[in-house]
Amino acid sequence: MTPGNIAGMASIKGLDVIAVTDHNSCRNCPAVMKFAQEYGVLAIPGMEINTSEEVHAVCLFPTLEAALNFDGYVYERLMKFPNRKEIFGKQQICNEEDICVAEEPNLLINSTDISFDRLWEPVSYTHLRAHDRSPSRGLGDVYKRQAEGFETAAQGKAGQSLSGGMPDYQQFRCPLSGAYSGAGANDTGEGKIR
Fold first, then answer.
1. Closest C-alpha among 181, 185, 186, 194 to residue 28
2. Do 149 and 85 form a contact (C-beta atoms < 8 A)?
């Protein structure tokens, strides 16, 4: 799916918030965030990093700039191995016009040399284990811990910023994992933000 498709499907599904969490990359965040804003959906820039221990962790960033800075840090530490499109598919990077402008030649699902315990060091952001279905790892719990000082350029439907307290968003109780990070991935309606 292209960034425009992702944001459009999130809107059609009635989602208020999505997190953009590609494997070891934030390079599609600018385009998704642009389209999400047009559709009235809040898009949080993020990444699903594969650590040196093979732990998949979802990283959510307070700003697009922080996400893109972390992207460069991670890419330098990614195990370089050519992507085999015929097996893993294309790894496309789209611009803000929804046009594929590049294709990543290295396989992005490989592990990095960044340990899970050191994820806090490079930049200030929120991280949690991906694919963790325990109730204590929900998006609401993340925001409760990060409500002070969490900022993003994206705006919610009512025009509210994520700066400071977030009473509406503290009610999230859906696990943040691959099943919930993409529009249309969860057709049951479970985890929908209302």
1. 181
2. no
pTM over 0.70: no
Task: Give the mean model confidence (pLDDT) for residues 95-113.
Answer: 96
Between strands 100-103 and 92-94, the pairing is: antiparallel
Tokens of 29: 């965040």
Burial class (CB in 10 A: 0-12, 13-18, 19+), 54: exposed
Got the DSSP string for 32-56? HHHHHHHHT-EEEEEEEEE-TTS-E
**Cα–Cα distance between 180 and 173 in angstroms, integer?**
12
Distance CA 16, CA 164 (A): 19
* HSE of 107, CA atoms in CB hemisphere, 13 A: 15
Predicted confidence (pLDDT) at residue 20 exceeds the cutoff of 70: yes
